[in-house]
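Intended use. Records like the one below are meant for learning the mapping from a protein sequence to its folded structure. Do not use them to infer anything beyond what is encoded.
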Amino acid sequence: MIGIGIIGAGDFGAAHARAIKQVQGLHLVASCRGNNDALAAFTSEHGGRGYTDWRKPLDDKDVDAVLIASPHHLHAEMAIGAANAGKHIMLEKPMAPTAAACDAINAAVAAAGVKLMVAHLMHFALPCMAARQMLEQGTLGRPLVGSSWIIKLWMEHNRRDWHLRKATGGGMLLTAGIHALDRLVWLMDDDVVSVSAMLDAMSHDQEADDTALLGLRFAGGGLGQVQSVGYRNGAAGYAMDLVCEQATLRIDMGRGTMLGRDTAWTDLPGSFEPNWMHAALVREWSAMRDAIADDKPVPVDGAYGRNIIAIIEAAFASNETRREHEIAGAP
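Structure written out for the chain above:
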């Protein structure tokens, strides 16, 4: 049985706890949160020991792996601490606010010889998996142009002050829009070489962005665009279109995946799940279990997580200079 510790026992930590409970071979041993009352409520519901200091689960001999679901600016310190303590790591997205911080995490993980998976949930969501499977069959040809968006309520009940500030890794793009970017990059299956972007706080009085529009150039000639919008009032949209050489794919997280050919759309069978997010978390933790127990590669590693952050850093730079920016280290 693999013992799990949750560092960041908040709303999404609870979503992870519910998923962990359904994965055979995993057991929630401990959780950590600074607020004593909230921590007590969390452990009462999900079990395990409670700690208010994030270092304590790293000292717990029954904890084999940790989930880090803390504020973004704390990810690097906590992940490096976990690696140094010999704990395997599930690290919530964004991996860290900067590529340099991602590099430090990856170096610590490599030195410690532990497993690190960055929790990019789209890789385990059934509509996205169905699209990836279709692309890998080769009948659609090469992806040429992709448009991916997440448009949602920004000031949700779990929004915190750190979400609104740049120094703490806040903003809609790093918090939620990153899902739309990740989904596009994963399904295009190519390196992004440059980014042009516009970001601002359009609907809220805050320092960090609530709106971002990104244009991407891929190494193989493909083009992409990403919309990251946190509205004040509206209705949510989690979707993507991918134009390939021989067909078009449309992913709608609330409906499933559709194939467009000869001017008609058809649903891909088995591509819709009513509770897709919970199912994706269960798949994510199943993959983490297999990586630890059977020494399998993690599906989303630190190099990939770092690449997504490098793209976002280039987007921030592009917004400042009003110029297209190349990705550092891109081909």
